[in-house]
Design a protein that fits this description.
The complex is a heterotrimer.
Chain A lengths: L8 E2 L4 E5 L4 E6 L1 H7 L2 E5 L6 E2 L4 E7 L3 E5 L4 E6 L2 H4 L3 H4 L8 E5 L11 H9 L3
Antiparallel strand pairs in A: 1-2, 2-3, 3-9, 4-6, 5-8, 6-7, 8-9
Chain B lengths: L7 H11 L28 H12 L6 E3 L11 H7 L2 H4 L11 H18 L3 E2 L6 H16 L3 E5 L4 H13 L3 E5 L1 E2 L2 E2 L1 H7 L4 E7 L10 H10 L3 E6 L18 E5 L15 E5 L11 E6 L5 E6 L5 H4 L12 H14 L3 H21 L3 E2 L8 E5 L3 H10 L2 E3 L1 E2 L10 E5 L6 H13 L1
Parallel strand pairs in B: 1-15, 3-4, 3-7, 7-8, 8-9
Antiparallel strand pairs in B: 2-10, 5-6, 9-10, 11-12, 13-14, 14-17, 16-17
Chain C lengths: L47 H13 L21 H7 L2 H4 L6 H4 L1 H18 L3 E3 L5 H19 L5 E5 L5 H8 L3 E5 L9 H7 L4 E7 L11 H10 L3 E6 L18 E4 L19 E3 L11 E5 L2 E5 L16 H38 L14 E4 L9 H10 L6 E2 L8 E4 L7 H20 L1 H6 L11 H6 L8
Parallel strand pairs in C: 2-3, 2-4, 4-5, 5-6
Antiparallel strand pairs in C: 1-7, 6-7, 8-9, 10-12, 11-12
Helix pairs in contact in C: 2-10, 5-10, 6-7, 10-12
Classes of the chains: A alpha+beta, B alpha/beta, C alpha/beta.
Chain lengths: 130, 439, 478
Amino acid sequence: MSNIPENLKYTKTHEWIEVQDDYTGICGITDHAQEMLTDIVFVELPEVGIEVKSGEQIAVVESVKAVSDVYAPVSGRITEVNKTLEDSPDLLNSDPYGKGWIFKIDIKVKHELDELMDAAQYAEHVASGV
Amino acid sequence: MSFLPNSDEDIRLMCNEIGVNSVEDLFVDIPLQVKNPDIQLPSPLSEQEAFHSILRTANTNKLVCSLVGGGIYNHYVPAVVEHLASRSEFYTAYTPYQPEVSQGTLAAIFEFQTYMCRLTGMDIANASMYDGATALAEAVLMAVRTTKKNKVLCSATVHPHYRQVLATYAWASDVSLEIVPYKNGITDFNELSHIINDTVACVIVQSPNFFGVIEDIEKAAHIAHEHRALCIATFTEAMSLGLLKSPGECGADIACGEGQSFGNYPACGGPLLGILACKKEFMRTIPGRLIGKTVDENAKECYVMTLQTREQHIRRERATSNICTNEGLCALRATIYLSLVGNRLAELARTNHAAASYCMEKLVDLGYERVFDKPFFNEFVIKINNARDIQNKLMDNGFALGIPLEEYYPELSDCLLITATECTTKDDIDTLVKLLQTI
Amino acid sequence: MVSAMQTIFSLHKEGRNKYTVPQFGAESYDSIPQHLCRDKLNLVDVSEVDVVRHYRKLSSLNFGVDNGMYPLGSCTMKYNPKVNDVVASLTQFTQQHPATIEELSQGSLQIMYSLQEMLCAITGMKQFTLMPSAGAHGELASVMVIKKYFETKGEKRNIILIPDSAHGTNPASVAMCGFTVKEIPSNSDGDVDIDALRAAIDENVAAMMLTCPNTLGLFDKNIMTIADILHSKGALFYCDGANLNAIVGKVRPADLGFDIMHVNLHKTFSTPHGGGGPGSGPIGVVEKLTSFMPVPVIAKKDNRYYLDYDRPQSIGRVHSYYGNFLVMLRAYTYIVMLGASGLKQVAENAVVNANYLRVKLQKHFNLPYNRICMHEFVINDEGMPDGITTNEIAKRLLDYGFHAPTIYFPLIVHGAMMIEPTETEHKDTLDAFVDTMIAIKNEAHTNPEMLKAAPQTTPVRKVDAVLAARKPVLKWEE
């Protein structure tokens, strides 16, 4: 069973967001997602400063034989990306909720957070196999 | 002749096991009204009959002393190349999907990639494309993807067939293509500077160009880079890379072209060997297969297909190209060739140039006009009145002299692109000169 | 680092290269200014015997059809008759320059022309071009033909339908021509879901690409209905002929309602795959598409063969010259030896071999689509003891001297193993393969560690593909 921390919000497409304060979120892919992908070999990071809408494809995560799009959990502006992933994509496997974070986002539409799943809901989503 | 080893008894036993009365029952899903059509083909032949029949046809081809190049070159293929490339472990294998039983192919292609990088001055080379023309078309699509710009400028001195293939690909993928005119046998750089703007994705030059003239790639790269466009340097005569400054050294971003000259035959135009190489920043956008070095679980160095997420079998409609099968065996031949000739390729290239220079001098001595007075490698353009007639007469006497340029460049009537290689001897040229004096 | 595999570069030693370059026998001037020349070439200096031993050694690390059964699904790894290669090495063919083909190589043109005619007879198409260099190149040229057809008619259609079981080259070729891919699901029989097709089709659909038989090795029972549905909306029907060997001589794709198709000479017509090419992917079309074919078209008039460039509606040129002639020559030799009756037997033997394997293996492995197959079929790792996966089974087969099947494709079957025995294996070899598969299944019960450690007898052990992708090393460096 994969790790699903209580303090995070989740998307159906297996991203997580940690809301630091009202305006800043840290995002990545879930433990379940990295398990499915197996060894991650490359991450295509978004450009800092771009504006994205929730659900918009924003990054790409690749294993040897699979490509997976990463979507923005909420709308906002990308303020920082995790450059260490360029040389160490394995952090996404070893520490998906910590050193494997992908980008920080300046949250624009706060109520979009309410539409995301909490840990229990996400656990159910994963169990349903979608 | 048949290559089916099953005996009638084998087939009967297999049908029993499957639970059908006859093989025909296995084709049950094919609609009856169209099944088992009458197909009109010649009656089957034994191997011996087939061979002799094809040999008769082969003998209607005429072998002459050929001073024809323009994209395909007559270079000697050393016996070692044929011998090693004919090993069936190489040529009856598939794409190396199972690396544990494909290290031969993988290691050889890794060597190929290394050779191509060293010859072109680039960081990355793929495992081959179909031919020079499609390598160029793919290079252009790569430049369009990378720069996110849609306009392409191509010099008129690029091989006309390459430009035609590029035009086909550009039309299909909605890329706008403009031709930069030439002046005195080289790209008109003033005109290029005039046409180019920031919407241009790439500038394409060929060196040696279709007239055999060595182009100034550095200048093309400089002009391109001023407008944040890429410079694509293409070539049809890979032998020239043995002598000339590499595209990478000249500042090109992508080098592509034809590698047939290395250990592969003219063969009526195929199979050929497309080469595509680039600077390392384009690693994720280059099309085609890449072989990478790694280790096995005993930490033994070995090779494997890598960065496959760029490719069609994984990324499907978002892949960098649709290419799957490439020209692997031709790349192997080139690799063996380059290993054998090694650094003497420079000397071999000099011999090519010497043969072409001698031929050019002798033709000029006969009073024919040298059309472009510029440094060339192993091809040059000569104007001969009634060129077609003279070509035909020479052909009856065992010589194929050059490619008429008029159909590609209407202003160059009676002009022939003439090529000499290390296979062209002094005797050949002297005989040609005598013939030209008499006809 | 354990005994590194030697590359040619580690054999380099100055002074060892004795390759003798012919010197041109006369003085001539040198027109190339020094600043245009490179300072130094950094290839290698090795002896001829080094070269021979090195590549012979490399060849021994490879597994080809001549080594043993190669049941790589959809790739048709059958025996390649040796006479093909002898014919393709005749100097009368190899030394011909394409620019003088009309004047000097009437024999070569005759063979190309005849091969086109033969492919027309085999497929029922009106015209063939041999120019595309591979299956994917043929697909691309075909999608271009489709685009040009509608462009000429003044119709704007921007969608091409592709079943979810299709090869990746299909959607990739479509995308290169600016069309949008719309995926059509398969039904529980493995055929195209007709209701989904009806729902997807409208006047924006240019064509549907269908592999026939499909990548599950199944002949779509509704194929003529699909053709009718497409044609009723003015759309074209494209046959991906990668699997033509299953039906060659048994049915002509044109009779099934296909308008355009490609053929892989390196699969159906026995030309060797060369470790990844060269191939040849001719395309054939029905009458209404002939004017869009790439130039030049090889034509015949008054017993002379010539290149016809006067094709104003053509998509243009797709290859430097006329395609991979030496590959065509091999296919031509093969067809000449087999004739129509021999080709039909090819399909029959390919299909009986595949069904025999299917029925034998079905007793031990999960078969998601349980019906009569054509030249190949798909099993998977469902129900394997101890969580043994398809990849582990594939690697273990290598230990037993078989090449692995195509694995994890088609994508619609989880853990797929796509097995294509081809017609050039006999029953004894198939029985040995079945016995091996059963032995592997037993090992999964008794000795799963053995499977997880496979392969162990191959030139290298399990290869670290993750390292290769994370830290790409794409050329040799000191």
